[in-house]
Amino acid sequence: MRRFQSLLGILFLAVLFAFGCSRKVTRVSPDQTIDLSGRWNDSDDRKVAQGMIDHVLSAHWIQEFERTHNRKPVVIVGSFKNKTAEHINPDVFIGAVEDEFINSGKVRVVQNNEFREKLRQERAEQQEFASKETAKKWGRELGADFMMFGQINSVTDEYKKEKVVSYTVSLELDDLETNEKVWRNSETIKKYINN
């Protein structure tokens, strides 16, 4: 019995070694599009976020706001719902949208409610533990003018080894004071997968 267990152990190590030797890892550019499974991936996040933010920043609401308020609008990127059957991390898409907004320089972006609470907790602790000269004051937060919401849906058409998946990302921007929807757009990415 012991001999059999030893033989099994050696066999397991040999298989592990064989698989370990066949793996090859190559560094690639983060901008390079690589589709392995055909599922939603980081390239889709980047492409859609960039396209949607280009669209929202060229729409009429921003010029209208700047004309009436004489300043850049302040935006919160709120929730993003995944309504597909796949696991898609909404935080990655929200991060990509925030990157595009901030780097455009055309709007100011403030934290969403989750991170605002963390900042307020830090500010509260500063009142007790930081020096009077360096403790940050209450009541100086930047109030947002608009909040962005979004969702992603998918439709799959499949026959034998072929599959077509259409992902549609919808975003909208709402005025926080009036609840008016000032901008709304959708973008679709369609993928053909042949297994």
What does this molecule look like?
This protein is α/β, with parallel strands linked by helices and 195 residues long. 41% of the residues lie in helices and 28% in strands. The chain is built from five helices and five strands. The chain is flat and about 80 Å long. The mean pLDDT is 90. One of its GO terms (cellular component) is periplasmic side of cell outer membrane. This is Penicillin-binding protein activator LpoB.
For the CA atoms, what is the radius of gyration?
24 Å
Distance between the termini: 44 Å
- pLDDT average, as an integer? 90
Oligomer: single chain
Coarse shape: flat
Helix fraction bin: 40-55%
Count of helix runs? 5
Q: What letter string, H or E per element, gives the SSE order?
A: HHHEHEHEEE
Q: Unreliable segments (pLDDT under 50, ≥5 consecutive)?
A: none
Question: If strands are numbered along the chain, what order do they take across the biggest sheet?
Answer: 2-1-3-4-5
| Strand percent estimate | 25-35%
SSE-based structural type = alpha/beta
The count of strands amounts to 5
Task: Note the main sheet.
Answer: 5 strands, mixed
